[in-house]
Amino acid sequence: MNFSFYIAKRYLLAKKSHNAINIISWVAVCGVSIATLAMICALSVFNGFEDLVASMFSTLDPELKITPSRGKVFDTEDEGIMAVKKMPEIILFTEVVEDHVLVKYQDRQVPATIKGVSDNFAALTEIEASLMDGDFLLREGDVEFGVLGIGLASRLGTNSGFVRPLEIYAPKRKHRINMANPGASFSSEEVFVGGVFCINQPIYDENLLIVSLAVAKSLLDYDKEASALEIKLVKGADVAAVQKNIESILGSNFIVKNRYQQQETSFRMMSIEKWITFLILSFILVIAMFNGIGSLTMLMIEKREDVLTLKKLGANDETIKRIFLFEGWMISLIGAFIGISLGLILCFIQQHFGIIKMGSIEGAFVVDAYPVKVAFLDAIFTFLLVSTLGFITALYPVRHLNSKN
Q1: What angle do CA 41, 43, 44 make, to 5 degrees?
Q2: What pLDDT, in 10s, does the model give residues 192-229?
Q3: Closest CA to 229 of 87, 54, 55, 50
Q4: Fewest Cβ atoms nearer than 10 Å: which of 11, 80, 325, 399?
Q5: pLDDT for the residue 365
Q6: Beta-carbon contacts of residue 80 (< 8 Å; ≥ 6 apart)
Q7: % pLDDT > 90, the chain
Q8: How far apart are CA 39 and CA 63, in angstroms?
Q9: Residue 28 backbone zone (phi > 0: left; psi -120 to 50: alpha; other: beta)
Q10: Mean pLDDT for the chain?
């Protein structure tokens, strides 16, 4: 095999009698390099966007969230829930009451999602870093406040410091609607606007109103019930291990989700887009490798006299076959090495200097430059794909030669 590899390397690097073969060979290398570079860059950009979206959701999404598998609420004094609260890996937790409501401010009314949380919610999440106006304030003395998304605040026409409160309405759970007096079928609460947040995610910015747990329970007529239990773990804790442990404690009556599972639909769509793009680039790579097939076929025709000489010196058909197989495979391997190297260099430059911008106007997007995150597993997978496709495309003309012989 070393002999076959040596001859193949000489054939690839040495000057051919027909200059067109040299040109086609290096065109094939360049084609494979460009396709490989595109794969590395595309996968890295998708990884960057995935990290960016994850960082946005982490502003409000807890590390772990427990919800009932059936129904809307659960008993917070359940034995399993009490056992979970005492786990040493948990540093903070907050009970959550969440439901759909109608929010009214002066002559404007907007459907929204109310989220009642405990006083330690700001310590459990990173919401204070996303405040655009005001403070994260839920209660001051006997006065109740709310913190709402920037889209919801805009539609209501309100902001922090406005003197009139928001009016929140929700249907009474234990009463039928009185058609003669529909207003009597709704509970209502009033809160002042304490702050406005923006995390650039419409699911939160356009709909969410955060209030104290007491206001939410009073409005929705809950006592010991909660919609969810949101958890923050001690620094360095293994999230997957803790999640599995909680699931074993609570059983099938509860669902435990990490941050990615809480936004599973969004991340699944990003993953699908990423691998569809990778598949399209793989087809482009296959097309680029056809240049290698043409180059290898012309080389085999040119080296027929060398083949006869090698056979007279004792080389068998398998040795000759391996020479040209290595020749065609090396075109793909060299192209893969060059493409991956250039791709990683470009990604690191973009990651540190942000050369390629998302728009000409600074601040028009969440980030000014395309986010990039290099995952070496993607580089390894790309190299394996290119080398495998290179071997398969080199195998065809070699087998064809063997059948002709």
Answers
A1: 65
A2: 999 999 988 888 999 999 999 999 999 999 988 999 99
A3: 87
A4: 399
A5: 67
A6: 249, 250, 251, 253, 254
A7: 42
A8: 32
A9: alpha
A10: 84
pLDDT in tens, 330-348: 878 888 899 999 999 999 9
Asked if 137 contacts 147 with a C-beta cutoff of 8 angstroms, the reply is: yes
pTM over 0.85: no
Tokens in use for 110?
Answer: 């907007």
**What CA–CA distance (Å, rounded) separates 383 from 395?**
18
Cα separations in angstroms, 251 against 80, 124, 125, 266, 273: 9, 25, 26, 27, 34
- Cα dist from 315 to 133, 311, 321, 323, 327, whole Å: 80, 5, 10, 11, 17
Residues 240, 254: Cα–Cα separation, whole Å = 16
What CA–CA distance (Å, rounded) separates 209 from 197?
Answer: 10
pLDDT digits (tens, 9 = 90+) for 252-294: 999 999 988 888 888 888 888 888 988 898 888 888 877 767 6
Three-class DSSP labels, the chain: CHHHHHHHHHHHHCCCCCHHHHHHHHHHHHHHHHHHHHHHHHHHHHHHHHHHHHHHHCCCCCCEEEEECCCCCEECCCHHHHHHHCCCCEEEEEEEEEEEEEEEECCEEEEEEEEEECCCHHHHCCHHHHEEEECCCCEECCEEEEEEEHHHHHHHCCCCCCCCCEEEEEECCCCCCCCCCHHHHEEEEEEEEEEEECCCCHHHHCCEEEEEHHHHHHHHCCCCEECEEEEEECCCCCHHHHHHHHHHHHHHHEEEEEHHHHCHHHHHHHHHHHHHHHHHHHHHHHHHHHHHHHHHHHHHHHCHHHHHHHHHCCCCHHHHHHHHHHHHHHHHHHHHHHHHHHHHHHHHHHHHHCCCECCCCCCCCCCCECCCCCCHHHHHHHHHHHHHHHHHHHHHHHHHHHHHC
CB atoms within 10 A of CB 343: 25
Given the structure tokens 């390099």, which residue do they identify? 33
